[in-house]
Each structure stands twice: as C-alpha cells, then as structure tokens.
C-alpha cells in the first residue's frame, strides 16, 4: 500500500509538470504580456497594443475594417527587440525544454519503479533529476516574468519597425493577462519539483527456506 501511495504522488507530480509545461507553451504564444494604451498618437493605430514575446498585436476598437486586430511576428534575431524580451525568449524556450525533459524522467522513473527493473538508487536518481529540471524551469519562467514586470513599471520603450505603425512608447502600459498564466506555470513547475516524493521500492523479502520437520 505504501508503494501504491507513493506512486500516486509521483503521478500527481507528473500531472503538475505536464500542466506547467502546457501553460508555458501557451504563454509563449500569447501576446498579452504587456498592454500598451495608445491614445495621443498623431497617426493610427489608436487604441491598444498587446506586446508579447514573439508577436505584437494592435487593436483598434473604432476601426471600420473587418479585422480590427493586426498582429506582427518577430524572432529573437530581430535587432529592434529590447534586452528584456530577448532574455525572456531564451528563458521561456529553455524552460519549456527542461520541463519536457523533467516529464520524461518522471515517466521513466514510474515505469521502472512499477516494473522493479532497476535498483532503488537508480530509480531515485531519475526522480531527483526530474526534480532539479522542474525547479530550474520554474525559476527560468519566474525570471522571464520579472523581466516583463520591470519593463512595465519602468515604462520602457520598444522601437518597432515603421511598418508596424506602433509608436515606440505608449501613453501608459500595464501587465497583461498572459503574465498570470506564466506565473501559474512557474508555480506548477516549482511545486512539481519541490514536492516530489522520493520513490521507494518495497524492501526485498529474504528467501527463507522451509525447515523440514523430522
């Protein structure tokens, strides 16, 4: 029963790791890391600009066009991106990769633990490696969130290309909803690592040969 309970705890940690990995991937693709309010620009667009890690989207609520939202993608090789976005891009990519590796190690540990194919020390090493990977991934996501936070409170500007039609500095800006999804992903990864219970296999029962009675 103890083995079954510990295996269930490891399966729960696997679920947390998978959710954290999924939320990390989703937050990377969403643009709502920063919300720019553009009201006094001499040229359109007026309205909102949602700045993400891989794209920026402008929204014009009073536009007569059929698609009031326009998005522009960018990569870490674009020279106009500030250092905080470049750093966050690399951190989020590394975190998603580490979270994926951590998930793989948990699965390997569960499979070998159930099948009792390896010794206890080897199985525990798999869970320990997964724990370290999950904690590191959670730390990377947290640093990316902090980079975005400091950029918002310092009202840092971004010199987008003229084709984007976005001013380099908004009238005001605030953190978007994607930040909270990234925070949730970081917490899930940290919980997956910090609360992983060391896997223990049941003790081997000594082979006792029956004593023949005379």
UniProtKB/TrEMBL annotation:
Keywords: Cell junction, Cell membrane, Membrane, Tight junction, Transmembrane, Transmembrane helix. The keyword Metal-binding does not apply. GO terms for cellular component: bicellular tight junction; plasma membrane. Pfam families: Claudin_2 (PF13903). It is a multi-pass membrane protein. The keyword Cell membrane applies. It is found in: Cell junction, Tight junction; Cell membrane. GO terms for molecular function: structural molecule activity. InterPro entries: Claudin, PMP22/EMP/MP20/Claudin. The chain crosses the membrane at residues 12-30, 79-102, 132-153, 179-199. PANTHER family: CLAUDIN. Belongs to the claudin family. This is Claudin 34.
């Amino acid at each position: 029963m103890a083995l079954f309970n510990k295996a269930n705890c490891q399966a729960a940690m696997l679920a947390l790791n998978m959710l954290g990995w999924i939320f990390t991937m989703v937050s990377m693709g969403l643009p709502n890391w920063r919300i720019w309010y553009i009201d006094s620009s001499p040229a359109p667009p007026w309205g909102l600009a949602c700045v993400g890690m891989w794209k920026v989207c402008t929204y014009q609520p009073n536009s007569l066009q059929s698609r009031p939202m326009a998005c522009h993608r960018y990569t870490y090789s674009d020279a106009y991106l500030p250092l905080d976005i470049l750093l966050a891009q690399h951190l989020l990519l590394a975190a998603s990769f580490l979270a994926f590796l951590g998930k793989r190690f948990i699965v390997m540990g569960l499979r070998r633990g159930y099948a009792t194919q390896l010794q206890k020390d080897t199985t525990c090493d798999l869970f320990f490696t997964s724990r370290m990977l999950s904690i590191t991934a959670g730390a990377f996501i947290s640093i990316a969130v902090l980079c975005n936070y400091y950029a918002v409170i310092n009202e840092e500007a971004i010199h987008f290309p003229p084709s984007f039609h976005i001013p380099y500095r908004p009238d005001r800006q605030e953190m978007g909803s994607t930040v909270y999804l990234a925070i949730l992903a970081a917490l899930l990864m940290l919980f997956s690592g910090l609360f992983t219970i060391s896997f223990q296999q049941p003790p081997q029962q000594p082979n006792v040969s029956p004593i023949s009675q005379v």
